[in-house]
Each structure stands twice: as C-alpha cells, then as structure tokens.
Amino acid sequence: MLTARNVTKNYSKLPILKGVDITVSKGEIVTIVGSSGAGKSTLLHILGTLDTPTDGEIWLNDVNLTGLKGNALADFRNRHIGFIFQFHHLLPEFTALENVCIPGYIAGTRKSQVKEKAVFLLETLGLKDRLEHKPNALSGGEQQRVAVARALINNPDVVMADEPTGNLDSRNARELHHLFMELRDKLQQTFIIVTHNEELAPMSDRQLVMKDGKII
Which H or E element spans position 9? Predict the structure, then answer.
C-alpha cells in the first residue's frame, strides 16, 4: 500500500536520512523506534508529505507522492493521510465535534454526512457525552481521542502518529495503544507510529529500528 524507496534528507550538508526503504501493507500497524536524533520523525513527516525528501520516491496506492505539488498535494494529504501528534493540536475555540469535522469540511464532503461520521467516531471512542465540550474541558486522554477521531474523519488510507502517547500518563497511554489495535481489527486501519514507548512498540505488527538515519 505504502512504499518508500531510497529516501534521503539533507539539511544544508547534514544528512538526516540516508537511503531509507520501507513498505507498509493495508491494515498493518508499524512502529518506528530508535534513539533521539535517529531520523524517526523526519521520516514520518516525509512519508506523510509534511516535508519533502532530498531524493527518493514515496508511493501510496500507486500515486507517486513526490510528484504532487501545491493544492494537489494538500488535497491528497487531507483525503488519504491522517495525523496524530503528541500535542493533539485541537483548536481551543471549537468543540470536540467541531474539531473532528474540520478536515471533512475542508475535503468538501456534505456537512450533514461529516457531522454524522464525526458523532459516530466520537461515540465509538467513548466520548458520547463530550461532543460539545471544548478542549480545555477535556482530560489529556480525551483530547487525544478527539485527535484520533479527527485523523479518521476522511477514511484515510494510513494514519501517521508521532509520539501519540508522549503526553499521556501510563493508563491513558495503555488505553490508546489498545484503541489503535481495535481500529486495526474493526476498520482495517493502517498506522505508522513513531514512539519511544516500550509497551506500545511490541504490540505492533512490526517494529522498524532506526539508527543514524537508516533502518537497521
């Protein structure tokens, strides 16, 4: 489903990624682990088209992502790739329901359809009674679940998660780990997760270890 070939990234003359190859299948949970500075987040951002490689190609379902530019790239990203970050980045002036709906509205999907899907996702993630709460009225674990629902609203081919449990306590982190597994089992959702969490990584289908800009 997703394939990266010989991906490199240099900042000035400093090499960050040194020819990375990766293939991820539909419905697979892949974790990327390694020490700080190994290139994990840089790789994830490039796979998710938030950054561009110096060289190499990335394909998602037969579309060459490195060949997309401008609005075409932004539209493809919104429709096919979901993102979950350590600091969920919810918009504070909007409710949980509104935050989840925003990517669907941007995609141009009918508003009633987006709202129905958002309610379904939030209820599925255990937030039935929190739809109209703004982020400052939600716990850290609840905010991250809203971020997960937002990542899923456009039925993405793959969800990219960058240290998704890094800002959670151990109980909420464990619950989020199991949530990823449930979404994989129920929806055949594909995840690529960068993590330092020693509990999450072994639960994935496959671990990729990075060191000095390479997968070893």
Answer: strand 2-11
Task: Assign 3-state DSSP to the chain and report helix, strand, coil percentages, each to 5.
Answer: 40, 25, 35
CA atoms of 196 and 205, how far apart (whole Å): 16
Is pTM beyond 0.85 here? Answer: yes
User: Which residues, in sequence order, are bridge partners of residue 55?
Assistant: 8
Rounded to whole angstroms, the Cα distance separating 131 from 137 reads: 11
CATH homologous superfamily of domain 2-215?
P-loop containing nucleotide triphosphate hydrolases (3.40.50.300)
Where would I find the beta strands (DSSP E) of 61-201? 63-64, 81-85, 158-162, 190-194
Token couple for 115: 């709202």
Q: What is the DSSP letter of 128?
A: G
* DSSP conformation class of 56: E
Mean of the pLDDT values across residues 35-64? Answer: 89
Where in the chain are the domains?
Answer: 2-215
Mean pLDDT on 155-174: 84
Residue 63 is encoded by which pair of tokens? 């579309």
CB 65 within 8 A of CB 3: no
What does the buried/exposed string (b/e) look like for 133-146 if buried means 16 or more CB atoms within 10 Å of the residue's CB? bbbeebeebbbbbb
Torsions phi, psi for 200 (to 5 deg): -70, -45
What is the pLDDT averaged over residues 24-31? 92
User: Angle of helix 140-152 relative to helix 170-187, nearest 10 degrees?
Assistant: 20
By C-alpha distance, which of 84, 83, 48 is closest to 68? 48
